[in-house]
Amino acid sequence: MLSIIIPAYNEQKNITKTINNLVNNLDSINRPYEIIIVSDGSKDKTFEYANRLKSSKIKAFEYFPNHGKGYALTFGTKHASGDVVTFIDAGGDFDAEHIDKFIKLMEVFDADIVIGSKRHPASQVNYPFLRRVYSKIYQLMIRLLFNLRISDTQAGLKVFKKKVLDDVLPRVLVKKYAFDLELLVIAKRLGYTRIFEAPVKMDFNSVTSGINFKAIYYIIVDTLAIFYRRYILRYYDKPHIKTQKIQNSNF
C-alpha cells in the first residue's frame, strides 16, 4: 500500500492538474494507493478544489493557520495507512512516473529512503541558474556541518518506509524551511543509513516557488539550529517521551 502526501499552500492553480496526473499514472500500475492532500492554511481555494477530487483513494484535509511544509507532511503521514509513504510537492514540478520507479528501487536495494536528486547525472532538470547556485552552496554547507553525503536534500520528491517516518517524525522540530534536512539528519542518526538518490525529470514551476531572501535566511537559521541540537545538545540521541505520546494521539 502506497500513501502519497501532498502539502499544499495556495495551490489552487496547480492542485487539480497535479492530482489528475498522479491518478492517471498510478491507475496504470498494479499497486494500491491513497492520496492525502493537506491544505496548510491556504488563503485561496486550494482545499475547495482538492475536496472536489475526493474519492475512496483521495483524502483532503485543511487547517489554519499556515504552519509550514514540515507540519503539513507530518499531519498527512499521521493519516496515512500505507507501508510506503511518498512526499511530493503540489506544484507539479516532478513527473508522477518517478514514484513507481523510486518504490522499485527501494524494493530492490531494501532502501530506507529514496530521494529525488536534481544533481543526479541522469536527471533532466529545467532549473534557473540562480537557484542552482543557491542549492550548490547549501549542499556544501550541509556536507561540512553534517557529513551528510547527499547531493540534494531539498527536492520535493521522497519515498520512505513508513517505519522510518514513525521513528523520525516525532523528533523533528523544524516545521518549515529546513524540515527535509532535519528529517534526513535524524534518520541517519537513528541508523537508517540506506538512503539512495534517484534521477528526476523536473520542470521548474516559478509561480509557486517559495524561495526568496527571507526564506534563505530562515533556512540557514534552521540549519544551524539542527547542528546545535545534533552535536551540542545531543537532542536526537535522547529517549523521546513525546514520541510515544504522538504515536498514540489523534494528532
How would you explain this protein's 3D organization?
It is a single chain. By secondary structure, the chain is α/β, with parallel strands linked by helices. It has one domain: Spore Coat Polysaccharide Biosynthesis Protein SpsA, Chain A (Alpha-Beta Complex), CATH 3.90.550.10. 42% of the residues lie in helices and 19% in strands. It contains nine helices and nine strands. It has a seven-stranded mixed sheet with strand order 3-2-1-4-7-5-8, sandwiched between helices. Helix 7 packs parallel to helix 8. The chain is globular and about 45 Å long. It starts with a strand and ends with a helix. The C terminus is likely disordered.
What is the strand and helix layout of this fold?
Elements: E1 2-8, H1 15-26, E2 33-40, H2 46-52, E3 58-63, H3 69-78, E4 84-88, H4 98-109, E5 113-117, E6 124-126, H5 129-146, E7 157-161, H6 162-168, H7 179-189, E8 195-199, E9 201-203, H8 213-232, H9 241-248
Parallel strand pairs: 1-2, 1-4, 2-3, 5-8, 6-9
Antiparallel strand pairs: 4-7, 5-7
Helix pairs in contact: 7-8
Short structural description:
It contains 9 helices and 9 strands.
Order of helices and strands: EHEHEHEHEEHEHHEEHH
The residue ranges in which pLDDT falls below 50 over 5 or more consecutive positions are 243-251
At the first level of CATH, the class is Alpha Beta
Sheet with the most strands: spatial strand order: 3-2-1-4-7-5-8
CATH architecture: Alpha-Beta Complex
Output the CATH homologous superfamily: Spore Coat Polysaccharide Biosynthesis Protein SpsA, Chain A
Portion in helices: 40-55%
Strand content: 15-25%
SS element count, helices: 9
Biggest sheet features: 7 strands, mixed
Radius of gyration based on Cα positions: 17 Å
